[in-house]
Design goal:
By secondary structure, this protein is mainly alpha-helical. The protein has a single domain, classed as Orthogonal Bundle (Arc Repressor Mutant, subunit A). Helix content is 54%, strand content 5%. It is built from 6 helices and 2 strands; from the N terminus they run H-H-H-E-E-H-H-H. A hairpin with a 5-residue loop joins strand 1 and strand 2. It is elongated, with a radius of gyration of 20 Å. The chain starts with a helix and ends with a helix. GO terms for molecular function: DNA-binding transcription factor activity.
Amino acid sequence: MKFKESFEGAICIVLLLANDRYPGKISSNEISTIMHSSNAYTKKILANLVRGNVIASDTGKNGGYYLLKDMDQLSLLDIYHATEGSDKSYHPKHMADNFLEGANDIRAKEYEVAHFMEDAENEYLQILDTYKLSRLVNEKSVEALL
């Protein structure tokens, strides 16, 4: 399975926001500086995390980004949905219809494959949901990221 590069970035941002070293809210500029990434790239990830209800932000002098949930409540699935979306990965395009006869037989096999892929994806998503981000947080591991 292929992930967007922003999946790793989103995990790091969540870990950063959970770090006691940076209490309170953190601006996108600060996050970009700490992560050594461009502000545009960081803002893209932050927007995805906000849309995914993983983080929120306040504007103004004391504004910045902050976590909406405890790390025990956040899983890799939350980050996955925020960065990758929640649409199913596999969608048959019925390409065989273009060159093979017997479309009904072909379509039945396509649905069989689609069902198998959906089952595999659901199992994968369930596994992601069991991995809570609190497992990644301890003083040494978070400081190593920074």
